[in-house]
């Protein structure tokens, strides 16, 4: 076999359809795109899940794609191993963690996770603790204090909303 004997396999090379090249070509006039409508126009079609403007299935079903839980709480996360460098007997609070730049945002609750080891007795105040973090801190002789975290739910009208059953009590408080 020589180079001039080589040729592609049967059916490997296929001529492309030449669209819109006259009535005799079989793909003239509309070029195989039918008559009128969004899909006959140039440019991209609507996205795969488009249902003609109706709220699409992936948005209607929260367990499918496209659902965001509006009640989700994001935490500033810190590991027990990061607290090992703190001096013994110190009270670790979200404010002191913010000063030490161990956490970044003061608007988010702090959660302590159990990655790493701790041998220093500390009083740790945070909004949430993992079970392993709680065990490690208490095993080192420290104490765990869980702080309350109240999520402020704002009125959708962007102002105070004292309507409803206990409107007078809420307005006075």
Describe the protein:
The protein has 173 residues and is α/β, with parallel strands linked by helices. It has a domain at 76-146: Ribosomal Protein L15, Chain: K, domain 2. 17% of the residues lie in helices and 12% in strands. The chain has a three-stranded parallel sheet. Strands 2-4-6 form a three-stranded parallel sheet. The N and C termini lie far apart (95 Å). The model has no long low-confidence stretch (mean pLDDT 86).
Short note summarizing the structure:
The protein is of the alpha/beta class and 173 residues long.
Structural class: alpha/beta
Proportion of strand residues: 5-15%
DSSP helix fraction: 10-25%
Strand order of the biggest β-sheet: 1-3-5
CATH topology label of the domain at 76-146: Ribosomal Protein L15, Chain: K, domain 2
Question: Biggest sheet: strands, sense, closure?
Answer: 3 strands, parallel
CATH architecture verdict of the domain at 76-146: Ribosomal Protein L15, Chain: K, domain 2
H/E element order: HEHEHEEEHEH
What is the terminal separation in angstroms? 95 Å
Low-confidence stretches: none
The rounded Rg comes to: 32 Å
Mean pLDDT: 86
CATH class of the domain at 76-146: Alpha Beta
Assign an overall shape: elongated
Number of helices: 5
**How many distinct beta strands?**
6
Question: Any chance you could write out the topology, listing elements then pairs?
Answer:
Blueprint: H1 57-60, E1 76-79, H2 80-83, E2 91-92, H3 94-99, E3 110-113, E4 123-126, E5 128-129, H4 131-139, E6 143-146, H5 167-172
Parallel strand pairs: 1-3, 2-4, 3-5, 4-6
GO biological process, one term: translation
Protein name: Large ribosomal subunit protein uL15
Domain Large ribosomal subunit protein uL15/eL18: 77-145
């Amino acid at each position: 076999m020589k180079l001039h004997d080589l040729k592609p396999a049967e059916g490997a090379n296929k001529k492309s359809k030449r669209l819109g090249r006259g009535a005799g070509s079989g793909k003239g006039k509309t070029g195989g795109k039918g008559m009128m409508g969004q899909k006959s126009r140039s440019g991209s079609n609507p996205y795969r899940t488009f249902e003609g403007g109706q709220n699409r299935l992936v948005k209607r079903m929260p367990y499918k794609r496209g659902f965001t839980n509006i009640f989700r709480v994001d935490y500033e996360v810190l590991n027990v191993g990061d607290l090992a460098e703190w001096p013994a007997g110190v009270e670790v609070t979200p404010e002191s963690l913010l000063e030490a730049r161990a956490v970044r945002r003061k608007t988010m609750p702090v959660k302590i996770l159990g990655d790493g080891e701790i041998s220093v007795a500390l009083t740790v105040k945070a909004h949430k603790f993992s079970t392993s973090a709680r065990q490690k801190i208490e095993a080192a002789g420290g104490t765990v204090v869980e702080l309350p975290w109240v999520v402020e739910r704002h009125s959708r009208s962007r102002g105070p909303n004292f309507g409803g059953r206990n409107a007078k009590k809420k307005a006075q408080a």
